[in-house]
Specification:
The complex is a heterodimer of chains A (about 260) and B (about 250). With about 260 residues, chain A is of the alpha/beta class. Chain A has one domain: Rossmann fold (3-Layer(aba) Sandwich), CATH 3.40.50. Chain A has nine helices and ten strands. Chain B is built from twelve helices and no strands. Classes of the chains: A alpha/beta (about 260), B mainly alpha (about 250). The structure holds adenosine-5'-diphosphate and magnesium ion. The site of adenosine-5'-diphosphate has 13 residues of chain A, from strand 1, strand 2 and helix 1.
Chain lengths: ~260, ~250
């Protein structure tokens, strides 16, 4: 059963310097419980694709359904069934962790009591219990990411979208985050769509990869299938496959990603 | 749901304001300075209005407070866009109108608080005005804050940096202040300036408020002022909601 299916999804931005075709044509099928990696160089259209699939941005072409809800005709249904963590995160540094979690619960129409219970529950699950009364701005990078994810899980969504969840994290926190994502899928059957430009992350975490380049899907398959097909052998590195597909290397790890 | 969501967003932002009491007082600084150092200059001048010079100046200062406070309301939108807070809220089922209303109602609350302080200060300086008129005045400026706050937030959704937002707002607020007769009544103006000022919506609020402060409630000024204030608020909230709904361009 496909929990996400998109056909010909496109988005053109009108800017002062003329139209920018951020996403030209993305076809996507994601099975329930799958961890899908959207891989591509900076500016490929990954963020724009996620923002369309989460109703933040109206597509200028194509159609998609998320958890059975049509993107354009049933935005409310899509919002009920998906969670989204933007690359920048989304908490106010001045507010306490508890207050953000409770308010988020209330935004999902929980009662006050339900919302504070859910906040405690999420804090337990994501290892934030000790931090509940700290200001969000005082958390470390890894803790902030866990909080962002907790916020997105408030309503137990079927699909979780993560935009570059590990960019800027130290290696230890990255490994923790990978475990967390796998755990979500294993325990709750959550479907996870994440973007990354780290090849090792894509290789280690994703069941399947969709490589986006210049707004279109350039290739897709399991990491080993991509290596075999584009890199020449199963032992080829994903780097070789990526180079063969896009004709250039992935973004070097140290370039600062542009937040959108 | 709209009520629930608006109350929720309002509460969130009000707590935020209460945390920064200093900013609250800082907003009062400009009108207080005018009151202290400009007000006394007017007491002996023939300004042509009924009542004392304070009944003329204080309504203007209240509207000035609303004009400058609310026009810059969009700054917080730009900050929250940068933090990702706004997008995080926009993926929840929360009503888009509530995202705007909760915010501007908070601004209106803060404003009324500041306005009460300003009027109290003015009373110690010599202002005497009927209570009903003063309350009507708060109503007018509350409406103005909601209108300008909505427009400011709408504009802020469309610009990316505070650097491009600030000059834009300044370019709009300063002429509004000068052309509406906020400081001195337009009855002192030469004909062409008086005519020009009638194209400035704020002018009608200024005239209405000054009438309220001398206890004349059934005047043409009051009628036009009320019409302009309500019409402007409806228009501004409609525009604001539309922008909040389709934001993300
Ligand atoms: N709001 C916007 N207005 C104009 N251009 C945009 C906007 N958002 C993204 N773009 C452009 O669209 C392209 C794809 O951006 P994005 O989806 O953020 O890529 P990625 O996330 O893969 O790095 C880039 O060229 C970017 O500059
Ligand atoms: Mg991106």
């Amino acid at each position: 059963m496909a929990v996400i299916s998109a056909a010909g999804l496109a988005r053109t931005f009108q800017t002062k310097r003329g139209p920018v075709e951020a996403v030209r044509c993305v076809d996507l099928t994601v099975r329930e419980g799958e961890i899908l990696g959207l891989l591509g160089p900076n500016g490929a259209g990954k963020t724009t694709t996620l923002r369309m699939l989460t109703t933040l941005l109206k597509p200028t072409g194509g159609a998609a359904t998320v958890a059975g809800h049509d993107l354009t005709t049933d935005a409310a249904g899509v919002r009920r069934s998906c969670g989204y963590v933007a690359q920048s995160g989304g908490v106010d540094p001045q507010i306490s962790v508890r207050e953000e979690l409770v308010t988020q619960g209330r935004l999902y129409r929980l009662t006050r009591a339900q919302a504070s219970e859910r906040a405690e529950e999420l804090a337990r699950e994501l290892g934030l219990t000790e931090l509940l009364d700290r200001r969000c701005g005082s958390l470390s990078g890894g803790q902030r990411r866990r909080l962002d994810i907790a916020m997105a899980l408030t309503h137990r969504p079927k699909v979780l979208f993560l935009d570059e969840p590990t960019t800027g994290l130290d290696p230890g926190s990255r490994a923790d985050l990978w475990d967390l994502v796998r755990g979500l899928r294993d325990r709750h059957g959550t479907t996870v769509v994440l973007t990354t430009h780290y090849l090792d992350e894509a290789d280690a975490l994703a069941d399947r990869l969709v490589i986006v380049d210049r707004g279109v899907v350039a290739a897709e398959g399991t990491p080993s299938a991509l290596k075999l097909r584009y890199g020449g052998s199963i032992d080829a590195s994903l780097q070789d496959a990526f180079l063969a597909i896009t004709g250039r290397g992935p973004a070097p790890a140290d370039t600062a990603p542009v937040a959108v | 749901m709209l009520l629930h969501d608006t109350a929720l967003i309002y509460g969130r932002y009000l707590r935020q304001s209460l945390r920064s009491r200093l900013a609250l007082l800082f907003g009062l600084l400009m009108p207080l300075l005018y009151l202290l150092f400009f007000g006394p200059l007017l007491t002996g001048l023939p300004l042509g209005g009924r009542g004392s010079s304070w009944q003329l100046l204080v309504p203007g200062l209240l509207l000035q407070l609303g004009l400058f406070g609310a026009s810059f309301a969009g700054f917080s939108v730009i900050v929250e866009k940068g933090q990702g807070v706004l997008e995080r809220m926009r993926v929840t089922p929360v009503s888009r109108l509530a995202l705007l209303l909760g915010r501007v109602l908070r601004d209106a609350t803060v404003f009324v608080l500041q306005a009460v302080l300003l009027v109290l200060a003015a009373v110690t300086m010599g202002l005497r005005a009927p209570l009903a008129g003063v309350l009507i005045g708060f109503g007018f400026v509350g409406l103005l804050t909601v209108s300008l706050g909505s427009l400011s937030c709408a504009v802020a959704m469309r610009v990316d940096t505070p650097q491009s937002f600030g000059p834009l707002v300044n370019a709009l607020t300063l002429p509004s202040m000068l052309l509406s007769g906020l400081m001195l009544p337009m009855t002192l103006a030469p004909g062409w300036l008086d005519v020009l000022s009638h194209f400035m919506p704020l002018r009608y609020l200024v005239d209405a408020l000054r009438d309220a402060y001398v206890g004349s409630y059934g005047t043409d000024h009051m009628l036009y002022g009320a019409l302009v204030a309500v019409g402007f608020a409806l228009l501004a909230v409609t525009v604001g909601t539309r922008v909040f709904r389709t934001a993300g361009a």
